[in-house]
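Researcher: Good morning. I'm working through a list of sequences from a screen, and I'd like to move beyond sequence-only analysis. For each chain I'm collecting a predicted structure so we can compare shapes side by side. This is the next one on the list. No need for commentary yet; just the structure.
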Amino acid sequence: MALILDNFSSIPLQGLHRVQLYKPMVASSTSCFAQIRTLLNIKFNPIKSAQYRQYGMKPPRSLLIYGAGSCGKRTLAKGLAKEIVDAGMADVITTLSTQDLIKYSSYVKGFQQRAYEVKQLKRVIFIMENVDELFPSPREEGSSSSGSTTDQSIVNAFVDMLKDGAEDNNNIFVIGITKRVKNLNSIVRTLFDDEIKIEPPQPKKRIDIFRNHFGSEFGVDHQSHNEDIIRQVNDDCSGMVGGDIAVLVRQAKINSYRRTQATNLREIKLIRDDFVNSVIQQRRPGANSLSRLTPSIPKVSWDDVGGLDQVKQSLMEMVVWDYKHGDALKRLGVKTPRGVLLYGPPGTGKTLLSRAVAFEANANFIAANISELVQGEIGESEKQVEELFRVARSTAPSIIFIDEIQSIFGQRDASGQHGKSLISQILIELDRLNDEDQANGKRVMVLAATNLPQAIDDSFLQPGRFDRALYVGPPEKDERLKILKGLARSMKLAPDVDLAEVAAWTINFTGSDLAGLMKKSGLYAIQRDINVEAISRDDIHKVYWETKPTVTMDQLFMFEKWNQAHRNNQPMT
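Model: Good morning. Structure tokens for this chain:
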């Protein structure tokens, strides 16, 4: 009979019934599941272990599992360990966390005692949770409690345990779990024979997790409708991990019970509002276990962007086609850019275009917050840039958007040492996007926006980085008319208002200028007559003469000059 020791609690061997203590619910970790099972089989299967030794190789004795919090690391490890025990290849599963060591005078003494107890057991799977707290890296020790600093004696105790695990007469397999792998002591990390990272689930895998948590009986009488609702909610759950979805489903069940007062589980018909409050809670700052950077697919299409037809077409060919028809482009040997720079006057729709591109490409959109990227402490800004790209790779296909890029990635000569380090870090990350395999939906692209292109370091515009630059200027007359018609859909205009005439007046007005013009015209109409029913031509004409476009002729000349210099690869003078 299998013996399971959780936190070294005493469980009598005789009369212990096998129960599903650790049923794996990690639908997102199919490949990881197979890798861990393979390592455990090699360790505890005598035939496979003997084959390894026959070829002069030692069977694996340890594994490090890391990933975002609540992504299923512990569930995966305990579920597979239970599987090995049930198969009769191992006898004992035991776990250890820092909470178990509090009763000892120090972590060192507590770990040594527990390591001694484990070594007395045979065929044991030893799961250590939060190993970064047991073995913190030196840079973390200053902020740790006195009991959590890395002592050489605790490292020696861990090494002795692994040595015993390599012996035939005492099979010990150690599984370390952490969500902060960078905080783990580098020496201890090298002692693990293998590492497996649990990535956040992709959209299709998230659907499987939703189904798993809802169960086969929930709402089965309305299965098709409920599946549609789950798919809609799933689109708003980019970046969530298994634990997040479990909370989301639990709250949605509660909301649906309260709404329907159903007595039969099969009869419940979900609505989107059952998930609304739960999604908001999961999206609150700090709630997402992946990062403060929250990926999402924007609900902005090309139709929401008035005009700019030429820029849209260029983005469609350079970005959207790559995400939708990547296989065809790869087959023809066509390489698409890793980064695209959108430059032009403020208010011309660069941010809106970026969101629409992500929507059309069905990619996660990650807007980088400059205030989070630029940190005062040495090395912290580089960490934030690294985290930004890590999140993008974890939630691929994705698009990173960096607005006002010149404020953080300006001319290297004028940036100082801190700025140079930051520029170097983002260049490294951009080069990594070039080197990594982007197939199988793992596409990551960077869109950046600026209204001061001449302030950007030239190294960003080299091939393989931001090797495409698109000018987003003020809309032309026909484009202004499209924007005005879009704005007019939500406004009440008098019959004497001719939008084509307004479009002809508003030379060099940007989309935001036009929106401001119409809004102010409405306010002026109310000021003129509180009982007014529509905005008249005179209202718009009056506000027009009091409004100046944000784009000046000097700005347009500067952009044209930079565009010519960029095409000729010459510095501006």
